[in-house]
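Let us practice reading a record.
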Amino acid sequence: MKTLLQRYTLFSFLFMLLLTMSSCEAIGSIFKAGAWTGAIAVILVIGVVIWLFAKLLGGGGNRGSV
């Protein structure tokens, strides 16, 4: 039950984030901050997306091994 609640909370947060910030605002903010900041932001976002997919699809960890 705890993991279901954690997933629901995470999805709620991401959904609210999507509703409050349009993609144009995000891109504009990144370009105002500079190219290096934009590159680091893109790498971080890609890393978070990969991490989320790994967590949601059950990746990582040793299941059932003794």
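A brief commentary: The chain has one domain: 2-56.
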